[in-house]
Amino acid sequence: xxxxxxxxxxxxxxxxxxxxxxxxxxxxxxxxxxxxxxxxxxxxxxxxxxxxxxxxxxxxxxxxxxxxxxxxxxxxxxxxxxxxxxxxxxxxxxxxxxxxxxxxxxxxxxxxxxxx
Length: 116
Hints:
Elements: E1 3-7, E2 10-12, E3 18-25, E4 34-39, E5 46-51, E6 58-60, E7 68-73, E8 78-83, E9 92-98, E10 110-114
């Protein structure tokens, strides 16, 4: 069964950094483009970043470009999101998922709160 478990969220001050992790299981991880999305109360879900199966191509939402970096380790079946220069508007629950996968497999997400 497809499982994606996010971790690494927490409280951080504006301008700070945080690294999110996602552990994958139940599918051939190295064959899939992976993504991070986020959602805050009252806001629409936003696709934050993508990374292709071998890690060769990454894409980012304009709102995070230059501040966030997505990466992956196929041997460990892990996806990461390095978040730098965090802003209060980055506050959201962050989800790791397959780019074209069902939301049924997104899991619980991890909460990132950016506040002083």
